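Lecture 7 notes: from sequence to structure.

We start with a single chain of 185 residues. Read the sequence below before looking at the structure.
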Amino acid sequence: MTVSIWRRQLAGPLAFVVAALLLRSRVVESPEMAAQITRGLVGPATWPTLMMWAIAAFGLFWTLQRAVTVLRAKGSVNATALINAPSQDALKTPFSTLIGLGVSFILVYGYLLPVIGFAASTLLYLVCWCLLGGMRKPLQIGLIGLLGTTFLLYLFVKLASMPLDRGQGVMGEASIALYRLLGIY
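Now the structure, written as tokens:
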């Protein structure tokens, strides 16, 4: 068993752990301001910080899972082929396409947040995820999108006092009107 097999199998998961732990302190631009508007345990940095800890924990779990796979393959005559086969086959399956689309949705969502605002981009994001997940009933998709977006607006804007992007121009005005309609402002 060579060092390169260990490095190849563990580098990705360990990178998630290290990146999440390093980025945990950078979740808000001004930690002092975030601390001032925090109510009890919940504030603007709470959700992103929890997500970073979750990414680190899952990355650690992923690292352990990969290490167990390498150790199990150690006794195999063709350990390199056994370890590499799943990752090479995964690139040819439709599941890899779904993963690629999912990552693309996340990137587009991040791009659209400042442009069309949290409410509109979250609604689009949830609808796209429902479609990607195989849902086809318009009423069900619409309800998940609307109720999910409304829940997240209350959670982040009302409860956590997070200053979410409202969007630019007309979308910014529409976001403010929506917040007033929902009683968030």
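Residues 94-132 form the longest helix (39 residues). Keep this in mind for problem set 3.
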